[in-house]
Design brief:
Blueprint (H helix, E strand, L loop, with lengths): L2 H5 L3 E5 L3 E5 L13 E5 L1 H11 L3 E9 L2 H12 L3 E8 L7 E4 L8 E4 L10 H5 L8 E5 L8 H14 L4 E4 L10 H13 L3 E5 H8 L5 H11 L3 E5 L5 E5 L2 E5 L12 H14 L4 H16 L11 H10 L8
Parallel strand pairs: 1-4, 1-8, 2-6, 4-5, 8-9, 9-10, 10-11
Antiparallel strand pairs: 2-3, 6-7, 11-12, 12-13
C-alpha cells in the first residue's frame, strides 16, 4: 500500500510525550504573571489533538509520571478524545515535562522543564504491546529519541510498524535542551530520518542533520531521492518545499497577526495529514497544514488552539490566501 493510501485510513499511532503547558494571558510576561492557564502540551500529544479535532483517530504511546501532573495529562488526553490505552504511569523520580511560555511574540520567553522526563521511561515492551494493524501510519517527533530507553523503544516501534505495513512519519523537531550533545542528536536524528517514509522539518533542522544550514536543502532532496516518499522542507515565512515523486512543490504561508510562536509545527503536521486523509492532493494538503499553523499561532495555547474542520474551512474562506512561494 502506498504512503498516501495508508495516511488516508486516518488512524494514527503516535509515539512521544504528553506534558503540561502553563501559558500567560495575551501580552503578559512570565515574571509578572498573576496566574497561568493550564492545558495539555508536548509535541506528540499536540499532533494527536490536532488530528482528532480534524476528524481523525489518534492513539498515543508514552509514559507519564504517577502523580497529580501525570493524571492531569491523562485527563486532558480524554478531553481531546485521544486514545490512551498505551499510556503507562511510572513511579519513582520521573516527572512529566512542563512548558511555561508567554502569549506574546516580542520578547517571547519559554521555559521547558525536562529533567528526568517521564516520557523517556517508555520501553520496548510498551511499543511491542501495540497492535499496529489497527492503524494506517506511525507518527513521532524527534525529542522521543533524545534519551534511553525511549530511543531504543522508538526505533523498535519503527521496525514493528514497518513489519505491519505502516509508513513512518517523522517530525525532526530538534530541541537542543533534551539532548546530551549536538553530535549525538545529529547522528540519531539522521538515523531516524533514513528510516522514515515521510519527513517534516525546518531549514535549521535539515541543516543540523547535514552539518550546516547551507546544506539542509540538499539533505532534504537527498532523502526524497533515496529513502523517503515525502519530504517537507519548511522555511518559516518563506513557505515550504515538498519533495515527492520527483516533484518539488513550492507553497507559501497564510499571514496572520501572531500571538505567540509556539504550536505551529504540531498543527501543520496534523493539518497536512488529515487533509491527505480527506482526499486533498499533496499541494493542497500542505497549504491546509500551513493554514492550521497560522490559526494556532494567533491564539493562546497549543492543543486548545488547534482548529477543527469547521474552523479551518472558515479561516480559508475568510483569508485572502497564501503568499506566493519563495
Amino acid at each position: 500500500m502506498s504512503v498516501l493510501a495508508s495516511i488516508k485510513k486516518n488512524r494514527f499511532v503516535i509515539i512521544g510525550r504528553v506534558g503540561m503547558d502553563l501559558f500567560t494571558d495575551p501580552g503578559g510576561a512570565t515574571e509578572e504573571a498573576a496566574h497561568f492557564t493550564a492545558d495539555m502540551g508536548g509535541s506528540s500529544a499536540n499532533i494527536a489533538a490536532g488530528i482528532v479535532k480534524l476528524g481523525g483517530q489518534a492513539s498515543l504511546v508514552t509514559t507519564v509520571s504517577d502523580d497529580a501532573v501525570g493524571r492531569f495529562c491523562l485527563n486532558k488526553l480524554d478531553h481531546y478524545g485521544i486514545e490512551r490505552v498505551h499510556v503507562r504511569s511510572v513511579g519513582g523520580e520521573a516527572r512529566n515535562s512542563l512548558a511555561v511560555y508567554e502569549s506574546r511574540v516580542e520578547g517571547h520567553q519559554s521555559v521547558i522543564y525536562r529533567n528526568g522526563a517521564a516520557d523517556f521511561e517508555m520501553t520496548q515492551d510498551d511499543v511491542a504491546a501495540v497492535d499496529y494493524s489497527r492503524f494506517g501510519a506511525l507518527v513521532t517527533a524527534g525529542t522521543v529519541f533524545a534519551a534511553e530507553p525511549s530511543r531504543s523503544a522508538t526505533f523498535h516501534a519503527f521496525d514493528l510498524a514497518k513489519a505491519a505495513g505502516l509508513p513512518v512519519i517523522f517530525d525532526v523537531d530538534y530541541r537542543p535542551y533534551s539532548w546530551p550533545s549536538p553530535e549525538v542528536a545529529a547522528k540519531v536524528l539522521s538515523c531516524a530520518g533514513a528510516l522514515s517514509d515521510v519527513i517534516v522539518g525546518n531549514d535549521d533542522e535539515f541543516g543540523f542533520m547535514a552539518g550546516g544550514k547551507d546544506k539542509g536543502l540538499a539533505k532534504a532532496r537527498e532523502l526524497a531521492a533515496t529513502t523517503a516518499s515525502i519530504v517537507v522542507y519548511k522555511m518559516g515565512d518563506k513557505g515550504a518545499i515538498t519533495f515527492a515523486d520527483g516533484q518539488e512543490i513550492h507553497t507559501g504561508i497564510y499571514p496572520v497577526t501572531a500571538l505567540k510562536p509556539t504550536g505551529a509545527g504540531d498543527s501543520f503536521m496534523a493539518g497536512t495529514l488529515c487533509s491527505i486523509a480527506d482526499g486533498h492532493d499533496l499541494r493542497t494538503s500542505v497549504l491546509r497544514g500551513s493554514a492550521c499553523a497560522a490559526i494556532v499561532v494567533a491564539k493562546p495555547g497549543c492543543a486548545p488552539a488547534m482548529p477543527d474542520r469547521a474552523a479551518l474551512n472558515a479561516f480559508l474562506a475568510d483569508h485572502p490566501g497564501p503568499t506566493s512561494p519563495s
